[in-house]
């Protein structure tokens, strides 16, 4: 794991010394291809009613759209915004670069497609100081702004779609394995070396695992909810869940004690559906060719047919209240999430990207 110096800023700031009523806060944001939501996300940070000083550090990657121009315009208009480069364009490198360029004792992560609710900074600082936790956070409030996005939102806020993690479906406040985004104590980030840059995805989950393993607390509360804008196409959704499954496999291999039914269900279902479909196809072809007992292979179709029937029945329930088009899309969305995640988990990442033993 690359250990990053997170203590000293890498940029110069000429600011007057102030004595804020509340502790100063650094908001760090990884930014890549976010022209649609970046300005809105930053505005939701800067408009927080917080009595202390707030700085916003944007780690800008090599985007294919107008993200860099928007980030430069925002920084030129508000001295509270600092830009740092993230030439590799990956999230953990962006977060470490932004943290290193920040200066305050509390570090709040925000994504460039996430919208903070009013009072969020006040609430997370209060929780950090009253619970003694190293990281506090709440729920991902998924809100789609298209028929497809609303179907994804319904799936991601149901145990059927993405599992029963507290930050997706809610739960009682208290210690947790992980939270959405997170507000951290800088001294703990320094102690643990920041985000592990090996993990292109799931790096937040992995950091929270190390926080807990080091004897610190990750604190969840359902009262905190940050708006998240989901992917807008099947292609983007498939890629998101495929890569998430790949990197979750790496987490399980590195920390076998984290394996659970929630993480293993999708790859098991994916394997059964694929095997059943292949057996069914073999049985069909064998029957056409007159192979004895080939029809037994058709029994394999029970797996994909049974899975499809289960998804249709479940999505009919969780899709109540959605518009007609979103309800029609919902079974396809859920199946895409399950089978993409499961396929990614089964295939894992390429060997060239895997960490050497002992690395």
- Given the structure, what is the number of helices? 13
Write the element-wise H/E pattern from the N-terminal end onward. EHEHEHEEHEHHHEEHHEHHHH
**Which parts are unreliable, with pLDDT below 50 for 5 consecutive residues or more?**
1-5, 8-13
Tally of individual domains: 2
Average of per-residue pLDDT values: 89
Query: How much helix, percentage-wise, in residues?
Result: 40-55%
The top-level CATH class of the largest domain is: Alpha Beta
Indicate the overall shape: elongated
CATH superfamily of the largest domain: Spore Coat Polysaccharide Biosynthesis Protein SpsA, Chain A
End-to-end separation in angstroms reads: 7 Å
Helix/sheet category: alpha/beta
What is the CATH topology classification name of the largest domain? Spore Coat Polysaccharide Biosynthesis Protein SpsA, Chain A
Largest sheet: 9 strands, mixed
Percent of residues in beta strands: 5-15%
What Rg do the Cα atoms give? 23 Å
Assign the CATH architecture of the largest domain. Answer: Alpha-Beta Complex
How many E-type strands? 9
């Amino acid at each position: 794991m690359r250990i990053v110096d997170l203590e000293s800023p890498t940029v110069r700031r000429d600011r007057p010394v102030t004595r804020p009523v509340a502790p100063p806060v650094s908001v760090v944001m990884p930014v890549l291809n976010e022209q649609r939501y970046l300005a809105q996300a930053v505005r939701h940070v800067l408009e927080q009613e917080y009595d202390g000083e707030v700085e916003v550090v944007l780690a800008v990657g090599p985007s294919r759209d107008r993200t860099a121009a928007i980030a430069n315009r925002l920084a030129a208009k508000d001295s509270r915004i600092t830009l740092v480069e993230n030439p590799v364009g990956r999230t953990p490198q962006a977060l470490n670069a932004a943290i290193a360029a920040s200066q305050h004792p509390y570090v709040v992560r925000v994504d460039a497609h996430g919208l903070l609710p009013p009072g969020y900074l006040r609430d997370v600082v209060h929780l950090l100081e009253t619970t003694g936790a190293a990281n506090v956070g709440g729920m991902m409030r998924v809100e789609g702004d298209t028929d497809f996005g609303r179907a994804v939102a319904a799936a991601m806020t149901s145990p059927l779609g993405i599992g029963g993690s507290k930050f997706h479906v809610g739960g009682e406040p208290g210690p947790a394995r992980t939270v959405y985004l997170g507000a951290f104590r800088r001294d703990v980030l320094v102690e643990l070396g920041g985000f592990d840059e090996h993990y292109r995805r799931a790096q937040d989950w992995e950091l929270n695992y190390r926080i807990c393993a080091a004897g610190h607390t990750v604190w969840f509360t359902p009262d905190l909810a940050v708006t998240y804008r989901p992917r807008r196409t099947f292609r983007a959704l498939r890629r998101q869940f495929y890569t998430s499954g790949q990197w979750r496999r790496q987490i399980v291999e590195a920390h076998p004690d984290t394996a659970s039914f929630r993480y293993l269900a999708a790859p098991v279902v994916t394997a059964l559906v694929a095997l059943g479909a292949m057996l069914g196809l073999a049985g069909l072809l064998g029957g056409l060719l007159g192979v004895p007992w080939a029809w037994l292979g058709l029994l394999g179709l029970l797996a994909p047919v049974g899975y499809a029937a289960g998804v249709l029945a479940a999505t009919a329930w969780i899709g109540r209240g959605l518009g007609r088009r979103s309800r029609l899309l919902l079974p396809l969305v859920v199946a895409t999430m399950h089978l993409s995640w499961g396929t990614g988990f089964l295939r894992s990442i390429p060997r060239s990207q895997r960490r050497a033993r002992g690395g």
